[in-house]
TrEMBL record:
Annotated Pfam families: Ins134_P3_kin, Ins134_P3_kin_N
GO cellular component: a single term: cytoplasm
GO BP of this protein: inositol trisphosphate metabolic process
Keywords: ATP-binding, Isomerase, Kinase, Magnesium, Metal-binding, Nucleotide-binding, Transferase
Subunit structure: Monomer.
Summary of the function given for this chain in its UniProt record: Kinase that can phosphorylate various inositol polyphosphate such as Ins(3,4,5,6)P4 or Ins(1,3,4)P3.
GO MF entry, a single one: magnesium ion binding
Cofactor note (record): Binds 2 magnesium ions per subunit.
Classification via SUPFAM superfamilies: Glutathione synthetase ATP-binding domain-like (SSF56059)
Name assigned to this protein: Inositol-tetrakisphosphate 1-kinase
Residues covered by the ATP-grasp domain: 112-321
Residues annotated as binding 1D-myo-inositol 1,3,4-trisphosphate: 14, 55, 163, 195, 293, 297
Length: 332
């Protein structure tokens, strides 16, 4: 394989978090040239690019309200349209879909049938589009099989607000929700979260702290507001993750089941860089998908640099062999 030119279009925060400078040095040793893309400058003067790796979540979300972000996104899309041979990791429509929890939870629900043999499921959920009275919400919950306690999450799955969640125990707590949002049945899972990080045809599973168990009859509890990012940090030490004298089950999820899930999601999403949040029910031992994440942080994945470069090289190989952007972009 000959070397290629790869543009990275990331926010300053994302660049620092993944240590793009160090990754560029790593790639240089393998004949791959990494270029940092500045969205405020014409891309045609920064190219050409064989591959563009990006996380335009900020821009996509802000473009709904901000004209400057709309222009930046339009400029990026115009460049991509004018250069169809450039492979995009990942496709903008796929990324945009995962920014909407309504859409991503529908994907999770649709996967249940194809993954039933692996005992993989997702919790019942309810989309709340607009402000409604608690009795009507509870009626809709019954229809959808959503039960207390439940987790309330914002519809937009990006930005600091997307990590602000609440754990609601009763009908009275529904006064605390702010539509549009998703209500998802809470599954007791022993305070252990399994984060799966996907890089093309490779994936890695990392254990993190998570919310402790709550009894289903705790209807007298007040709503608990929390930041999911803070709760599930590797070094998290929160009262919300302490198991009240119980011992957490540390059995990892079945590697075969996780591989089946990742394979199915890669096809359904058409993406190569994403993460999946998994929990294991303490009652049914079912592997439960609670969220899908765009281009996550990959913290705790020591092989991230080599895995990402390996996927980029496979994309470049397919591109040079005439495989086309669509085949390479999916990482299949």
């Amino acid at each position: 394989m000959s070397g290629g030119r790869v543009g990275f279009c990331l926010s300053d925060k994302k660049r620092k978090r993944m240590n793009l400078d160090a990754f560029a040095v790593f790639c240089e040793g393998h004949g791959v040239d990494v270029v940092q893309i500045d969205l405020t400058r014409p891309l045609v003067h920064q190219g050409p690019f064989d591959v563009i790796v990006h996380k335009l979540s900020d821009v996509i979300v802000e473009a709904e309200q901000d004209s400057q972000s709309q222009q930046l996104l339009a400029n990026f899309q115009s460049y991509v349209s004018a250069h169809p041979a450039t492979v995009l990791l990942d496709p903008l429509p796929a990324m945009t879909r995962l920014l909407d929890r309504f859409a991503s939870y529908r994907i999770m629900s649709e996967l249940r049938e194809s993954l039933r043999d692996w005992s993989i499921c997702s919790p019942p959920y309810l989309e709340i589009h607009r402000a409604s009275e608690p009795p009507s919400i509870q009626q809709a919950m019954m229809t959808q099989g959503v039960s207390f306690p439940l987790i309330c999450k914002t519809r937009v799955a990006h930005g600091s607000l997307s990590h602000e969640m609440s754990l609601i125990f009763s009908g009275g707590g529904l006064e605390d929700i702010r539509p549009p949002c998703v209500l998802q049945s809470f599954v007791n899972h022993g305070a252990v979260l399994h984060k799966v990080f996907v890089v093309g045809d490779r994936h890695f599973c990392v254990e993190r702290p998570s919310l402790k168990n709550f009894p289903s009859g705790a209807c007298d509890r007040k709503t608990i507001f929390f930041n999911s990012h803070e709760v599930s940090k590797p070094e998290s030490n929160s009262d919300l993750t302490a198991l009240d004298g119980q011992t957490a089950s540390r059995a990892p999820p079945s590697s075969e089941a996780v591989a089946a899930l990742v394979g199915e999601l890669r096809v359904q999403l058409g993406m190569a860089l994403f993460g999946v949040d998994l929990i294991i029910s303490i009652h049914t031992h079912t592997l439960t998908v609670i969220d899908i994440n765009i281009f996550p942080g990959y913290e705790g994945v020591p092989q991230f640099f080599s895995s990402l470069l390996s996927h980029i090289e496979s994309v470049l190989d397919q591109r040079q062999a005439g495989g086309g952007p669509s085949a390479a972009t999916t990482g299949l």
